Write a sequence for this structure.
């Protein structure tokens, strides 16, 4: 299950607050993705950061670390919008201002925060899973990585009917009259 406007993360946060298993109420779901919640009132929660607890409480689980170049990820954070909630950046800044007790957060400060968070998460994932065999890495921008991911999932007896993965939710590039870049990976 993918995000659903933060449903997974909100459920995990509620469960955490009520001392219940993190995935209580989500037992019918086999795959979780995008487990974060950034509300319009300044609350945020990143359920994916609880991977050690999830690994402990749900033995036999596999974890998928999907990634891309950090600059591309940061750019996607700044352009992400939700029809109901609006700009992700606006909601995230509101949450940071509330947490840090400051009046404003600049785009540059937010970009640095994103970079710091990405780097810390990368470090934590690499350290935690260094001696485990239940992490599958997926570079969402690389065709070979996607093929390796599909093979790994099939070896775990999951049915995947396609031999590729669609790129859903990709940030649309704005066309400019001066753009001469032919590399589809670059802006």
């Amino acid at each position: 299950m993918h995000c659903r406007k933060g449903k997974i993360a909100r459920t995990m946060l509620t469960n955490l607050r009520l001392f219940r298993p993190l995935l209580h109420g989500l037992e019918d779901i086999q795959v979780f993705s995008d487990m974060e919640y950034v509300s319009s009132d300044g609350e945020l929660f990143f359920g994916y950061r609880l991977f050690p607890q999830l690994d402990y409480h749900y033995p036999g689980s596999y974890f998928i670390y999907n990634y891309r170049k950090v600059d591309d990820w940061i750019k996607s954070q700044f352009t992400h919008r939700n029809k109901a909630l609006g700009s992700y950046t606006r909601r995230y800044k509101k949450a940071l201002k509330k947490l840090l007790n400051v009046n404003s957060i600049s785009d540059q400060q937010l970009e640095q925060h994103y970079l710091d968070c990405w780097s810390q998460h990368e470090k934590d994932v690499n350290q935690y899973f260094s001696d485990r065999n239940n992490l599958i890495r997926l570079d969402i921008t690389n065709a070979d990585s996607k093929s390796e991911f599909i093979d790994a999932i099939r070896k775990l007896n999951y049915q995947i009917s396609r031999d590729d993965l669609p790129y859903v939710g990709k940030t649309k590039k704005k066309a400019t009259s001066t753009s001469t870049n032919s590399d589809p990976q670059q802006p």
The CA atoms of residues 46 and 56 lie 18 Å apart. The chain has one domain: 7-155. The first helix runs from residue 7 to 17.
